[in-house]
Amino acid sequence: MPSSANPRKIVLAYSGGLDTSVILPWLKGRYPGVKLVAFACELGQGSELKGIEKKAKMSGADEVIVADLRKEFAEQFCFPMLRAHATYEADYLLGTSIARPLIAKAQVAAAHKTGADAVSHGATGKGNDQVRFELTYMALDPSLKIIAPWKDERFLADGLTDRETAIDYATRHGIPITQSKKKIYSQDRNLWHISHEGAEIEHPDKEPAWEKCLTMTAPLAKAPNKPEYVEVEFSRGNPVAVNGKKFAGHDLVQKLNEIGGKHSVGTVVLAENRLVGMKSRGVYETPGGTILYEAHKALEQICLERDLYHYKQQVALRYAELVYYGQWYHPLRESLQAFVDSANQVVSGKVRVKLYKGRAQAVGATSPQSLYDPKLASFAMSGYDVTAARGFIDLFGLPMKVRGMRQKVKM
What is residue 184's predicted lDDT score, i.e. its pLDDT? Predict the structure, then answer.
């Protein structure tokens, strides 16, 4: 459990965004003499990390660590989630949720390496990320102190109560930031997605300002008028190639992001139920992930036996909750993963996906493990004993028949 004693050395999950840019120098003032390690993860956020080491040092960091975790992120976090086919509340492909346990895991490792006795994050007391970070810290090293400035009364007493006041604080203290009160979106970007919250998006009666917020995908109005087809190959539930070319996991996702983004694929607006109790509304862009989910679903449909497929769909709902709730290192998630991975042993093959005007649609799938038999599926009666259905229906419907005979059924 976190100690009340002041920390000697803190590893801060540092993104260079508004919150952590303000928090870094604030921690210096809050804990005089403390050593600060700014820990940044390269998860595919593009140019956002440019100059981050210099910026962190200018803001008071004693050490800066930048870890390139793109390959691990894709192959050890996103792909296991893909194999589960997990989505939260039907539409959210969990791009922020799945990144937090990896960042926190790497942060704990950095604390061990640098001799730090505390870890810190910039998540607010109203969001989900505070849970995701802190549960991971607790699971991997319960001895580390957890410093959460947004839940510190002194932080609030310094006037830091929202993004606008954070901008004012940064301006007063000469902290370099890219946000302004006119560009107030809270964004989280990685290889898998980018999320947008704030401004007009917070109002469910308003359409998001697509031209202002969309980053990875083209607005639908600017999508090409001609469809494009992309072929994705899978081995045991893992994507391994695009259009016949093999890629490492992170490069494969990036390739599909480029292709899907051009066609406005993977953009959703979702009013979701946060773990902490309130509803929030966000815009999510997940072009590559959307293509992968569509392709993976098409293979599962032809490769998995019916009862296994149906039960796996039920598991996916619980798995998605565990990821969203920050319980990646929960034994239930790990056990569900074993089931998911066992089911995916037969999910190999190729899928052709059509991209057009915001939609990714699987239009063809082939697999050496396919259970689809065209002869059985056809309307031809040969090769199948159609009379067998008589006895089956009699037995299957017997409880309903008896009820119909003995009790009045509402029509």
Answer: 67
Phi then psi for 270, rounded to 5 degrees? Answer: -135, 130
Residue 189: which of 286, 373, 45 has the closest Cα? Answer: 45
For 308, other C-beta atoms within 10 Å of its C-beta total 15
Give the structural domain span for 360: 189-366
Tokens of 347: 């999910």
For the annotated catalytic residues, the residue numbers are 19, 100, 129, 186
List the single range of 162-166, 196-200, 235-239 with lowest mean pLDDT. Answer: 162-166
With CA atoms as reference, report the closest residue to 212 among 183, 187, 175, 190.
183
Is residue 87 within 8 Å of 316, Cβ to Cβ? yes
pTM of the model: 0.94
Strand intervals (E) in 290-348: none
- Please name the residues in contact with 256: beta carbons below 8 A apart, sequence gap of 6 or more: 230, 232, 242, 287, 288, 289, 291, 292
Q: Is residue 136 part of a domain?
A: yes
CATH number, domain with residue 284: 3.90.1260.10
C-alpha dihedral (401, 404, 409, 411), degrees to nearest 10: 70
**Structural domain ending residue among the three candidates 155, 184, 213:** 184
- Alpha-carbon torsion (38, 213, 44, 278), positive or negative: positive
Instruction: Indicate whether 1 belongs to any domain.
Output: no
> Which among 291, 286, 129, 262 has a CA at the least distance from the CA of 192?
286
Phi/psi of residue 232, each to 5°?
-115, 130
Give all strands (DSSP E) within 236-314, no chain letters.
238-242, 245-246, 267-273, 279-285
Mean pLDDT of the chain: 94
Q: Which residues contact 339 (CB under 8 A, 6 or more apart)?
A: 312, 315
pLDDT at 32 over 80: yes
Residue with tokens 């980018």: 194
